[in-house]
Structure formats: C-alpha cells, structure tokens
Specification:
324 residues, alpha/beta, Rossmann fold, UDP-galactose 4-epimerase, domain 1, 2 domains, 7-stranded parallel sheet, 3-stranded mixed sheet, 10 helices, 14 strands
Length: 324
C-alpha cells in the first residue's frame, strides 16, 4: 500500500487511472484545479482543488499527504491550440511541472509517472515508432513534453528521481460501465466529435487534410483504449515502487486507422449517416503516428485487453448516449 498523488486526476486519462488505482490497496489523493476536469469523474480517493502554480497549496498538500509516488496528468493537450498559443503551453506544461518537481525534490519524493506523448517524435522516419526514434517535436505541445522528459532525465542523474514517461498515442474510448469517459470543453478529439455529429449536436465532422501520404489521404493514428492506457500506468507505478529507475515507454497497439476509417466504423456502430467535409491540413499534424510498444509489453508485462477500434468506439458511443 502506497500514497499516490495524482495531479490532473479529474481529467479524461487521469480519472481512468484513478479508477484503476481504486482497484488496488493504494491511498489516492487527486490534485486538480478543475479547469479541464470534473469532480464527478473522480471515483476513488479525495480531491484537493489547487493549481500547480500555487506553490503554497502544493507544499501543504505534499507535506500532509507524504506521497510515495506522483502521477502527473495536469497538462494542456491540444496540438492546434499549442501552435496558436505557445506561451500558454510552456507556462502550464513546463513551468507548472517544474514547480511540482521542485516541491517533490524538496520533500524527497522519489517516484514520478509522467503523462508524455507521441508528439515528442514529430514526423518520425520509422513506423511503427520505437522509443529510440529521434525526439523532434513539430509543435509546442510536443516540445513541452520533450522538455519535461529531458528535465526528468537530468533529475534522475542529479537527484536520483526515478520516473517513467509514458508516451501516449491516441487515447480513446470510455469506461465499459459508462461511469466516466471523454469530455473536453471545447471538444477537439476525433472520436467524440464524430459521435457528437451522430447525436445531432454538430452539422458535420471536419477532416483536416485529405492529401497526406497515406492509403486514403487522411491522417493515420494508433488509437489505444483508455482502460489499457490506465493499466499501463498501474504497471509503471509498480515498476517504480519495486525499485525501477528512469525509463520511457510507448503506449499504443502497433497499428493505426485513418480518419476516414474511424468515421466509417462510427457510422456502423451508431447506425447514423455522419456527414464529413474536407478542410485544409492542420498545423502540427504528422501523417502517421503508430507505436512500437514491444518494450512496454516485455519490460512491464503489459497485455492490452481492448485492441479493437469497434470496441473503442462502442464504449465511447455508450458514454455519449449516457451524457445526452
């Protein structure tokens, strides 16, 4: 049993990890400013409403809770917005994370799970992408994640901080029991936008670019069910608690689907015709992002349970219908 502090635990991925942690013996404390998260998404543990820029509240929280490990999800995540508003992303994703790390080092907290991203690779030369691929982000969001990964490497060498960076590909889907799911305001992720179109909340789905060097001209992404992603976090946590040192792991299924394929599968599941329009490419979008997750499977014994685009969209659809 360990004390686990989860920053951003009221958000999409954070709340699913809190749900997974709730099935263990660990004691959970969520630290979230609720700017992007939702209090009712926290199914286990307690909540401290606080911002990572508020070092006084952060200090008090860490001093009182004495975490054995911290899982950090409190980041802005929109690629397009990061291109338009880079300072917003460097302030929150970099400066606020450094605030957190300063407090943790001061209080001798030695285990850290970092919510990273495939965006650190930019437009990779090798697909599926191994962890050894060059770090060349092409947008401020990816750059913000790459900076913190480098900080964690330096802290491992200088202060002995043990950390796991999990480089997500495209998290999707929802809790199979429909208790929590994806909800961003405003929403910008493909699958929920498609499903909102199916519900009649939007007139159509906009496809950003149809001239990429892919089989049907639209971007290809590796969609990983959020439940499998949460399981990877629990395994990463156990690795650190068992004495593991600094490492990075890709989280994906090793194969991708194009935007058009996701739209077609959504039509099949919802039984609704989903109008789509073609727009220009979006700044910062690489053509293909597909993970090589063999390291995660070999080192942490990760066994995905929900590697199915149909299942991913079906659980997301049940969540969307429940929200309606």
């Amino acid at each position: 049993m360990a004390n686990i502090l989860v920053t951003g635990g009221a958000g999409y991925i954070g709340s699913h990890v809190v749900k997974a942690l709730g099935e263990t013996d660990h004691k959970i404390l969520v630290y979230d400013n609720l700017s992007k998260g939702f209090k009712d998404a926290i199914l286990h543990g307690q909540l401290i409403v606080g911002d990572l820029s508020d070092t006084k509240v952060l200090q008090r929280t860490v001093e009182a809770f004495k975490p054995d490990a911290v899982m950090h999800f409190a980041s802005f995540i929109e690629v397009g917005e990061s291109v338009r508003e880079p300072l917003k992303y460097y302030q929150n994703n970099v400066s606020n994370t450094i605030n957190l790390l300063n407090v943790l080092v001061e209080h001798n907290v030695s285990n850290f799970i970092f919510s990273s991203s495939a965006a650190v690779y930019g437009s990779p030369e090798k697909v599926p992408i191994p962890e050894s691929e060059s770090i060349k982000p092409i947008n401020p969001y990816g750059q913000s994640k790459a900076i913190i990964e480098r900080v964690l490497e330096d802290l491992s060498n200088a202060k002995g901080l043990s950390s796991v960076s999990l480089r997500y590909f495209n998290a999707a889907g929802a809790d199979p029991l429909g208790r929590i799911g994806e909800r961003h305001d405003p929403e910008s992720h493909l699958i929920p936008l498609i499903l909102k179109t199916a519900k009649g909340e939007r007139e159509n789905i906009k496809i950003f670019g149809s001239d990429y060097p892919t089989p049907d001209g639209t971007c290809v992404r590796d969609y990983v069910h959020v439940e499998d992603l949460a399981d990877a976090h629990v395994l990463g946590l156990q690795y650190l608690l068992d004495g593991g040192k600094r490492d990075v792991f890709n989280c994906g299924y090793g194969h991708g689907y194009s935007v058009r394929e996701v739209v077609d599968m959504s039509k099949k599941i919802t039984g609704v015709e989903i109008p789509a329009t073609i727009g220009p490419r979006r700044a910062g979008d690489p053509p293909v992002l597909v993970a090589d997750s063999s390291k995660l499977k070999a080192r942490l014994k990760w066994v995905p349970k929900f590697d199915s685009l149909e299942y991913i969209i079906r659980t997301a659809w049940e969540w969307e219908k429940k929200r309606a």
